[in-house]
Design a protein that fits this description.
Structural class: alpha/beta
Number of helices: 5
CATH architecture: Alpha-Beta Complex
CATH superfamily: Ribosomal protein L13
Distance between the termini: 32 Å
Order of helices and strands: EHEHEEHHHEE
Strand order of the largest sheet: 5-2-1-6
Helix content: 25-40%
Oligomer: single chain
CATH topology: Ribosomal Protein L13p, Chain: A
Radius of gyration: 17 Å
CATH class: Alpha Beta
Largest sheet: 4 strands, parallel
């Protein structure tokens, strides 16, 4: 029996929609990362980009457990001395609620050339409306 290797011509990118209202950030990010990388398909091959498009709505209603709204910190450095800036999850959520989901999913994807391609198929919206209705996204189970 030979091992199946999917070819690039055989790939198909489906569209899925996820409602983030009332869901935990980490659990949701795992499901999204698996769909973006294509690991939920039986034809998954490590070197072939077989992932799907994922549309996330209601990102402003995401939940974090415990005291993570104040204790979870996100660090950025400008590259200059004393250029470290620190933000809490609450501060990021108040300004740009979709960035919490984008950062969590980015951290769960492998660090290789396909990560940016896969993240390009992630669409996150703070509210319930989105412009991807013509693609007819299916709910992600």
């Amino acid at each position: 029996m030979r091992t199946y290797q999917q070819k690039v011509e055989e790939t198909h990118h489906d569209w899925y929609i996820v409602d983030a209202a009332g869901q935990r950030l980490g659990t949701l990010a795992v499901r999204i990362a698996r769909a973006l990388s294509g690991k939920h398909k039986p034809t998954w091959t490590p070197h072939v980009d077989n992932g799907d498009h994922v549309v996330v709505i209601n990102a402003e209603k995401i939940e974090l457990g415990g005291k993570k709204w104040t204790d979870k910190l996100y660090y950025r450095h400008s590259g200059y001395p004393a250029g470290l800036s620190v933000q809490t999850a609450r501060e990021i959520h108040d300004k740009h609620p979709e960035r919490l989901i984008e950062k969590a999913v980015r951290g769960m994807l492998p660090t290789n050339r396909m990560r940016d391609v896969q993240l390009g198929r992630l669409k996150v919206f703070a509210g319930a409306s989105h412009p991807h209705d013509p693609q007819k996204p299916q709910p992600l189970s």
